[in-house]
Amino acid sequence: MTRRQVRGRLPVVLVLPAVLGLAFLLVPLAGLLVRTPWTSLPTLLSAEVGEALRLSLVCASLATICCLALGIPLAWLLARSGLPGRGFLRALVTVPLVLPPVVGGVALLLVLGRKGLVGQYLDAWFGISLPFTTAGVVVAEAFVAMPFLVISVEGALRAADPRYEEAAATLGASRWLTFRRVTLPSVLPGVVAGAVLCWARALGEFGATITFAGNFPGETTTMPLAVYLALESDPDAAIVLSVVLLLVSVGVLAGLRDRWISGPS
Amino acid sequence: MRGVLVLALLLTGCGAPAATSDSGKITGGVTVFAAASLTETFTQLGKDFEAANPGTKVKFNFGGSSALAQQLDQGAPADVFASAAPANMKQVTDTKTITDVPRTFARNELAIAVPKGNPGKITTLAGFADAGKKIALCAEQVPCGAAAKKVFEIAKVTPAPDTLEQDVKAVLTKVSLGEVDGALVYRTDVKAAGDKVEGVTFAEASQAVNDYPIAPLAKAPNAAAAKAFVEFVLSDKGRAVLGAAGFGSP
Questions:
Q1: What is the pLDDT of residue B20?
Q2: pTM confidence score
Q3: Residues contacting B138, CB < 8 A, separation 6+
């Protein structure tokens, strides 16, 4: 079937809700831009904004790297290993997606906190205490964002043709070599798309971060936290912060899209 | 229709307290925006109010007073606002979202909260200056943070906090989980937290007392019930519940 055959009159039942959906997503953003106090913009952009933005970008990127390092093998395990109970495991992996982030933050405190199940030993043996540190922000963001990466990569793996891997195996390649040289390159678009989603989710993360890592300027105050607190005293500053975050994230995502994710041409 | 309704509400809202008019019976839902530190007492008062006025249903939105004031200024549909500090009430009266004169119904002061057993050995405000200890405070935007700033100024202590939380209950959670060695919360919060948290009183607290004002909203959807709820909180019965939780009377 060629593309030409599916074309025809655009069905209203699809176009109308599609346009409504688009408006629903874009109008609030437009509202933000309209309400932005552009004239007082320079005075509202303090050093703290730069600090929060830098912290946000660094933490979201580190969280994405952690997710890639742990998430790709996990996705491979779910898609390829033939492990019993994979379906159940896959459902469990998506739990952080449905969990309210604040609950995720409390769960992290109960496990990795200073008095937590694992955290008490980290503290006693190594003197490591994650809450209220920048590392804690990365942990909270990775916890919330990893399912996006795993699901995306696993979907790509399941859709990939296993015959190439089988061919590599018949030629004597080990499973690790096959994974590196055959599997991974074939699912690269899925990995990149997952990483981008993961990064975007980490960048906007609020609930788990403020609950697990707390809020202290320069250490754990990322942009979403700064926006929330600014909203309490100075809504204009909050709008400016939001617009800055919006522009930076859209800029990064658009840049990535041009370079990495080629749309249907 | 809607215009008439709004006009009617404006007329009753701006008038004298004689507005409990017609049948005199209070019914319907009442939405109360209240400071996080009022969570336990107001939940109780809401139940008592419902029992005293069959047919009413009190709904609460608890949060940091400044966040609530912000939501009200943006037009959140509420009937009553109870703030933990006059400053946040002023945010709402300045915009004419509340036109009645707010009345003080309770007072509260800060106390040092430490996890059970006081592992960090914090017994005075000076302990908060130790960077080696984990300290949680409220952000300055919320009343407990503003009060904390004041007591530290009076005590001439520069605190070394590890986190500035968005409301007093978030601070208390960090203490009850043992994640911080010390925090400043309200006396009533220490009491409400039970035996997971120990309270330490300090002399400077009495110099930074928080007044809690309450008022019905100018555009309260249920103006009669809003007024009735405010009166209920200010009544002897309301005072008794607040007093039992450790609030001082105005």
A1: 42
A2: 0.79
A3: B64, B144, B145, B148, B164, B165, B166, B167, B168, B171, B184, B185
Optimal mutation site among A48, A111, A232, interface B, most CBs of chain B within 10 A: A232
Rounded Cα–Cα distance for residues B121 and B142 (Å): 27
**Taking CB atoms and an 8 Å limit, are A115 and B136 in contact across chains?**
no
Contact A110 B177 (CB under 8 A): yes
Domains and CATH numbers, chain B: 2-106+212-244 (3.40.190.10), 110-207 (3.40.190.290)
- Residue B200 phi, psi dihedral angles, 5° rounding: -125, 120
User: Which residues of A touch chain B, with CB atoms under 8 Å apart?
Assistant: 106, 109-110, 113-115, 129, 131-132, 210-211, 213-217, 219-220, 228-229, 231-233, 235
Indicate the CATH number for domain A47-259: 1.10.3720.10
For A212, the closest chain B residue by CA position comes to: B174
ipTM: 0.76
Mind listing the pLDDT tens digit for each residue in A53-112? 999 999 999 999 999 999 999 999 999 888 888 889 999 998 988 899 999 999 999 999
Alpha-carbon distance A65 to A59, whole Å? 10
For residues B74 and B210, is the Cβ–Cβ distance under 8 A? no
Q: Do A232 and B66 touch (CB under 8 A)?
A: yes
Written as six digits, the tokens of A100 are 């309210």
